[in-house]
Design goal:
two-stranded antiparallel sheet, mainly alpha, 229 residues, single chain
Length: 229
């Protein structure tokens, strides 16, 4: 005589009257198929039947995998991301390089300070013949020099400007000289003309005087003749 079937209390997420698999928990039941609980096949207990745990678990695992959602299966099929691992490796390598550079590298330090140059030994003062700006130094410090050797070259810009100014003055004076020479020639020609005119006047007056004297002489002779007669 068979005993009446024992009813297993219903778990959360399963319809009433259905008995879930004894190896599943409530969380596993809710996680299957996107949170929707799927009823497991009803297992009827028998006093002489001992279920095989390996077979039951294998068949349940296959059934659960088939009932998973597509999004969950795609997420599980995707390979793990290597970006965090690469970032960690890159950061570690960067830190190693920075550490090696900081340990063995050399940094050039540049310092600035104000000071005064003080010559060592006897000092010779050089006075240029002409003042100007030094454009080039033909000798180096500590080099031996000879008499007549060119030591420095002055900037020729100032000299060229002065020469240009003097040339302009010379041109202006030459123009004035030409004008004065022309004025002198004009005055000389005018004086010669006036001299010629004056000479002509003198010659005319002298001719008039000679003519008057001749006339006076003739009149005197006539007067003497009349007196003798």
């Amino acid at each position: 005589m068979n005993k009446p079937e024992a009813s297993t209390p219903s778990r959360e997420g399963l319809p009433k009257g259905e008995t879930p698999h004894p190896n599943l928990t409530s969380a596993e039941i809710r996680s299957i198929y996107g949170g929707t609980a799927v009823s497991a096949p009803l297992v009827r207990a028998s006093p002489n039947h001992v279920p095989n745990p390996v077979t039951a678990t294998s068949s349940l695992g296959a059934t659960n995998t088939e009932n998973w959602s597509t999004a969950l299966q795609n997420l599980l099929d995707q390979p793990p991301s290597v970006l965090p691992q690469r970032l960690l490796l890159g950061g570690f390598a960067f830190c190693m390089v920075c550490g090696v550079w900081a340990t063995f590298g050399q940094i050039d330090e540049v310092g600035k300070a104000t000071g005064k140059l003080v010559p060592k030994g006897e000092v010779y003062k050089i006075h240029p013949i002409e003042s100007g700006k030094v454009a080039k130094i033909a000798v180096k410090e500590g080099e031996s020099v000879t008499a007549g050797q060119v030591l420095v070259e002055l900037d020729t810009k100032l000299g060229a400007t002065e020469v240009e100014r003097l040339e302009q003055l010379i041109n202006a004076d030459q123009i004035k000289l030409i004008q004065m020479q022309g004025l002198i020639e004009n005055i000389s020609q005018e004086a010669q003309t006036r001299q010629q005119i004056a000479k002509a006047d003198i010659d005319g007056q002298q001719a008039a005087i000679d003519q008057a004297q001749t006339k006076v002489t003739a009149l005197r002779e006539q007067l003497i003749q009349h007196q003798q007669a």
